[in-house]
Batch of 3 targets.
Target 1
Amino acid sequence: MSLHIDANKNDIADAVLLPGDPLRAKWIAETFLENAVCYNKVRGMFGYTGNYKDKRVSVQGSGMGIPSALIYYHELIKEYGVKTLIRVGTAGSYQKHIGLKDIVFAMSASTTSGINKKQFGFGSYAPTADFDLLIKAAEYATKNNIAFNAGNVLSSDQFYSEDPDAYKKWAKSGVLCAEMEAAGLYTIASKNNVQALAILTISDSLVSNTACSAEERENTFTKMVEIALNII
């Protein structure tokens, strides 16, 4: 048992899906998993383990932002021996050609967070996805006619920016969208030699000023979950 996850060693599978929203974790378990059992309710951060196509899979909420998410990533890896971590989350589009409910695979994650500055000093560490998971995701999506974009995303420490045009400098350099956790996930996964990938669904667009509802964010983004479950 760890500080933030009330589970025994065998309660959690080797592969875990990681939505930020604990209610999305609940929805994933109830919608996709057979014989799902809730192993964690600490701080309302639900965690479940069940079966998908005879594969044992867990899904664990991680909260919003790198500091919150790193707590769960760390404990899952260090205390429960998890080997595959797939973030299934939402993102805000920075590009005109990427619209609501589109899928994005985060090949790499730029960030405004300072998590790596202490460790690498004046160097700039580049957090990247696990190549094998990325290829599997792209192959599955292509085979099943699921359109996707793949590239650099921004893991931001700010959800609300005082400058509405701040995103444009990132967009100009090819960043596809913004989210809040992938850079932390890729960093800790690489350090511990485990697999990690962030599969994102566009929930809002800074280009078109459109957004999905809170209910849609919570329980209608099925394609990214389908991809994640079928590559682990």
Target 2
Amino acid sequence: MGTSSAEITALLKAWSSGEQAALARLAERVYPELRLMARRFMKNERQANTLQTTALVHEVYLRLLDVTEVDWRERAQFFALAAQMMRRILVDAARARGAHKRGAGALKVNLDESAFLSNAPNRSVLALDEALTAFSQVAPRQAKVVELRYFGGLTEEEIVAVLKISPRTVRRDWDFAKAWLSRELSHKP
């Protein structure tokens, strides 16, 4: 992660201005960070899962090619979008595998950044996605904090920059979101 935020931001702006060479340079610079994000997502996926880390990064890259008319302001904005895309890809893959069938008992999803998914990865991804979608209807900003921190791996400072809120608000939103989601997920059959 030796690429500076300013360099990534400059490449994003050049790309959105139509400079195709900037996209190639950008991809080269952000690839290691995207792989780290994907690795965190894939950490507890089943070994037999057909979607691998590299494939997840490549799928995000392909989706990014379709992104147009974005006013890129900073590196964190790019990684927030990539995190959102990874979440969607994984949820779609879990649904495609028929992972929506749940057994009895509550699902455990650990919302610590160090443990990205519980021992039942497919069920957890879907349960968390459903809970987070419901939460976004109640508290959209707090849901965005969860998405950026949990799925995107963004730091508190990066979330502050993306959402334009104070560090204290980020911490408060994170605490509220963890409590709400834990309660919701503990009641899931």
Target 3
Amino acid sequence: MPSFSGWLAAAALAGIATPVLAETAEPPHPAPIIQLPDQIKWGGRPGGTRNVTLLGDTRKPGPFITIADWVAGPPSKPHYHPKMRTFIVLKGHWDFGWGPKYDLGAMQALPEGTVVTVPAGGIIYDGCKQAPCVVETVGDGDDPEFMVDENGKTLPPEPRPAPAR
């Protein structure tokens, strides 16, 4: 029996991936794609937060689903994305704050099964301050992150270091 968070993930996926069928055409009947836990290819650095993209590509337009397996540590700084995103807490508790004021004490510890939808442009900061957590993200790709100052004004992008030669 799927867990509550599994049902939420399936519902989110069904809402963005259901094809529109022509009245006379027989739909294709492809086989499901099954990935057992040991087959999932996680990215990230050893001992750090791990990420996996299960559907789509976060860098390209179109729906995506990712999972972040966060280590405990300082939350992100206030930022926003131009497109709406939905987050589902799959394991542990996720520390979540919103608005341009970076107030770690005002963050909410959201328990497993919590669903958070952030409208396009909504300013958030998030992480797992004291214990690891696992969070699923559902969104539309090609959606960069923009940092903001304490007044909610978009900051210029930080310069990236030159590639090593």
